[in-house]
Amino acid sequence: MMAQLWAGFCERYGARVTPQVRKIGDTITAAFDRFQFGYDGPRCLTHNDFRPDNMMFGTAQGGYPLAVVDWQSLGYGCCMADVSYFLGGALSRADRRAHDQDLLRGYHAQLVALGVKDYSFERLWRDYAHYSFALFNMGYAASMIVERTERGDDMFFAMIDTAAAHVMDLGALKLFEGA
After folding, report:
1. CB contact at 8 A, 127 and 78
2. In Å, how far are 30, 141, 176 from 73, measured between CA atoms?
3. How do the domains of the chain map onto residue ranges?
4. What pLDDT is recorded for position 5?
5. Which of 48, 68, 145, 169 could cross-link with 73 by S-S, CB 3.0 to 4.6 Å?
6. Taking the C-alpha atoms of 108, 110, 111 and 113 in order, what is their torsion angle to the nearest 10 degrees?
7. Contact 73, 47 (CB under 8 A)
8. pLDDT tens, 20-40?
């Protein structure tokens, strides 16, 4: 299905699909089974659309400090799926590049403190790169299954461009090339 959505996306948007975006999409759709089912590490509940739009924050007047909504895509998999999706989409490219390593070191330290074993920082970083494709996949797939609008097209391309930068910054293409 993802390959069909990708082909339809490329046909629909034509020249708007840059060579870099096409390469990323062609690579990940050819290796989609490995992307989707190739993880064999520790697992947890995943949201799979983990972004600020799906978060509500408490205020001085009350409420939970953080409530995450829109759990229609939940799964059971790698924690880095949500972390990579969030950092790749919620931070500017400059902020992500400047801070992702420190943020992930802090996240890893917290995982270890909470009892996660046999999950090195190096493995976490590789999983972070692996799941950098998640936002990209959501962008093109969602654009093909919702009602098309000019505003929606612009939003999906912003998502895809941000995700493409994340993939390229992490050198993540090499994880799936030749699949």
Report:
1. yes
2. 23, 13, 24
3. 2-45+75-175
4. 97
5. 48
6. 120
7. yes
8. 999 999 999 999 999 999 999
Q: Is the dihedral of CA 131, 132, 133, 136 positive or negative?
A: positive
The backbone region for 69, taken as left when phi is positive above 0, alpha when psi lies in -120 to 50, beta otherwise, is beta
Tokens representing residue 83 in the block: 């972390």
Query: What's this model's pTM, rounded to 2 decimal places?
Result: 0.92
Is 67 within 8 Å of 55 (Cβ atoms)?
yes
Q: Cα torsion for 98, 91, 132, 171, to the nearest 10°?
A: -30
| Cβ atoms of residues 133 and 172 within 8 Å | yes
**By the 8 A CB rule, do 77 and 41 touch?**
no
88, two tokens: 């790749």
Nearest to 108 by CA among 95, 96, 97, 124: 124
- Is residue 179 pLDDT above 70, yes or no? no
H or E, element range at 59: strand 55-59
- Per-residue confidence (pLDDT) for residue 75, from 0 to 100: 94
Query: From CA 25, how far away is CA 130, in angstroms rounded?
Result: 14
What is the predicted pLDDT for the residue at 178? Answer: 75
For the chain, the residue count is 179
For residues 44 and 66, what is the distance between their CA atoms, to the nearest angstrom? 19
Q: How many CB atoms lie within 10 A of CB 143?
A: 21
